[in-house]
Task: inverse folding
């Protein structure tokens, strides 16, 4: 954490570089630098120029959040080929148009991108180091590509001149000054690497002592706690981020719960109170246990959680035990709020149909449900809860949410297809395809639209091209009900043959879907499977099923 | 701080950058490194060292001089000459 360069540099953390306050990294990045690279990530780069110049910066920036990145670099090739291509890894096309025949370059990219779009199940980034005119040509190439493809222009107007270094072009094969290399590396970090390493945040979990205030509640008592300007800004920032982005806030602290509640009541001047946070986890258990408990309660993947704590040791213990959490070391400075803003700025935040209020309501309802499930069989429990599934078939109204579900669902999906609104509209308008969006409600809560199923029909076969369920609905025993509920409708429509085909493509995250498939459909990963439509009879519905837009009702 | 101390500090800093980039511990004898001949001191490491020194010191290595830098002492001498 301490800058060891003997150039009279002041003490610094990696956050200085991440915020552009320092041009280089300290020798020892931070507490995570020496962590065993358990949280490893592979990114492959297909390139026609020297990408290596950015890697030292990117490596250290990732290390600052406990992630070790392995870079699979292709040879330099204007054809952007690599025989070691991995379908499940994020792919970067690094394109430096300088010294290339632009027309041939774009032609090669067009071909290669189409191939990779078919092969890959992960995100694909086009990083272009071009002039404004060159960028316009690449932008055109990107039109009508799937949502999995993003194009990022690394240079702003005028920078092709001001950032240019003839020396580095000749010596290193990349025409950027040293100063520019670190500026561009920072852009790559925020726009590509960070969203590749961590999912869009759904929750911020904060420690209390020496994080949101200075002092230790259990030792100093309520009245002695003080707050630095940075700590005060941190609480304001997380409250604002919660409101703006519909995320959840939780506290994870080693303190007596009663004392924390008392603090919430008596020290509102600190900027927070009981209802500031959606969940409170306060006990003397190790932080990693508390965090596991919290994640189970929140029912979200570790990859969408930011954990802020002043103790490097506790951050290390938590991230070592639960891979994927984004750790931030709170140092009481304003820097932490600025860093959070930058992190949130790395993700796209389209309006979501799911509000934090709905999410929180769902989680609280989940606690009640688990209680009922623990005392009854799952069939009884679903009936007792009055569970109803609503299947909206080819409904234009449901498509915005369907896009959102396809874009965000990671844990439960057949093949992680990321649909655009246009693509789904196309399917709805096609009489040989269907888009089914499923909502669920019970006596405890209305979770809204939580699943999408797409069906494509040809002369030869009826193919379920995607089935995805939001993590908010997982763990409730609804997977069979949703899947066979959709099949039940399909079997009742005009002759669709006696068999349904589907394909499961394993990704790094869809383990829960694989588990469900293995126990219910006997699928082998990455192969196309046939199931007889009569299989629906083996799964009589345990919940009320309603079908909208086609006038069929089943109970 | 006098010029001698200043120079020592700069030399230590250059050493630190070499150790960091080449991932060498304190016991490694940096004087034995030679660009193109030592396995760890390859063209990528050379590029990273140059970029780091330029960013930290705010100096710029001249292209024709870079070609003649082979050892850590060459780098120290160049940096001292530029800084002084």
Result:
């Amino acid at each position: 954490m301490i800058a060891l360069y003997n150039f009279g540099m002041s003490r610094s953390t990696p956050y200085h570089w991440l915020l552009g306050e320092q041009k280089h990294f300290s020798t020892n990045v931070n507490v995570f630098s020496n962590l065993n690279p358990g949280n490893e990530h592979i990114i492959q780069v297909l390139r026609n120029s020297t990408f290596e110049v950015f890697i030292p910066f990117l490596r250290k920036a990732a290390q600052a959040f406990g992630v070790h990145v392995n870079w699979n670099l292709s040879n330099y090739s204007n054809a952007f080929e690599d025989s070691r291509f991995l379908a499940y890894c994020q792919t970067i096309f690094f394109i430096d148009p300088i010294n290339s025949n632009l027309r041939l370059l774009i032609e090669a990219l067009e071909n290669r991108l189409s191939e990779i779009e078919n092969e890959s199940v992960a995100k694909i980034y086009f990083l272009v180091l071009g002039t404004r005119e060159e960028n316009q040509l690449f932008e055109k190439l990107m039109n009508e590509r799937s949502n999995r493809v993003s194009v990022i222009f690394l240079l702003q107007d005028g920078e092709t001149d001001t950032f240019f270094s003839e020396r580095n072009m000749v010596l290193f094969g990349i025409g950027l000054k040293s100063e520019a290399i670190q500026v561009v590396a920072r852009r790559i970090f925020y726009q590509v690497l960070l969203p590749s390493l961590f999912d869009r945040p759904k929750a911020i979990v904060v420690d209390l002592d020496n994080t949101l205030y200075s002092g230790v509640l259990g030792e100093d008592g309520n009245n002695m706690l003080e707050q630095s300007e940075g700590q005060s800004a941190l609480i304001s920032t997380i409250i604002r981020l919660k409101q703006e982005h519909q995320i959840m806030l939780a506290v994870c602290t080693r303190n007596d719960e009663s004392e924390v509640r008392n603090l919430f009541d008596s020290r509102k001047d600190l900027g927070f109170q009981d209802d500031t946070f959606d969940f409170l986890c306060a006990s003397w258990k190790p932080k990693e246990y508390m965090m596991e408990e919290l994640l189970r309660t929140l029912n979200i993947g570790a990859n969408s959680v930011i954990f802020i704590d002043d103790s490097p040791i506790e951050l290390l213990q938590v991230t070592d035990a639960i891979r994927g959490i984004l750790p931030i070391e709170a140092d009481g400075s304003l820097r932490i709020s600025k860093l959070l803003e930058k992190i949130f700025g790395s993700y796209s935040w389209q309006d979501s149909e799911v509000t934090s209020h709905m999410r929180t309501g769902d989680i609280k309802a989940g606690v009640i449900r688990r209680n009922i499930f623990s005392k009854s069989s799952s069939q009884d429990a679903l009936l007792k809860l009055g569970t109803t599934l609503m299947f909206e078939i080819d409904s234009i109204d449901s498509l915005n949410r369907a896009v959102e579900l396809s874009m965000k669902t990671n844990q439960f999906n057949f093949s992680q297809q990321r649909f655009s609104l246009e693509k789904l509209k196309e399917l709805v308008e096609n009489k040989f395809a269907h888009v089914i969006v499923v909502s669920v409600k019970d006596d405890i809560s209305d979770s809204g639209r939580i699943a999408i199923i797409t069906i494509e029909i040809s002369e030869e076969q009826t193919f379920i091209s995607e089935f995805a369920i939001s993590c908010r609905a997982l763990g409730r025993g609804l997977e069979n009900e949703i899947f066979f509920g959709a099949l039940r409708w399909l079997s009742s429509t005009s002759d669709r043959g006696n068999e349904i085909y589907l394909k499961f493509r394993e990704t790094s995250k869809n383990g829960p879907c694989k588990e469900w498939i293995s126990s219910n459909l006997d699928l082998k990963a990455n192969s196309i499977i046939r199931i007889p439509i009569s299989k629906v009879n083996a799964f009589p519905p345990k919940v009320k099923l309603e079908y909208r837009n086609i006038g069929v009702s089943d109970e | 701080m006098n010029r001698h101390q200043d120079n020592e500090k700069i030399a230590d800093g250059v050493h630190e950058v070499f150790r960091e980039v080449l991932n060498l511990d304190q016991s490694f004898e940096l004087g034995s490194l030679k660009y193109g001949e030592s396995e760890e001191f390859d063209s990528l490491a050379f590029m990273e060292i140059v970029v780091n020194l330029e960013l930290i010191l705010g100096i710029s290595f001249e292209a024709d001089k870079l070609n003649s830098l082979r050892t850590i002492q060459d780098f120290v001498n160049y940096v001292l000459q530029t800084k002084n």
The first helix of chain B runs from residue 3 to 22. Helices of chain B lie at 3-22, 43-57, 63-66, 72-83.
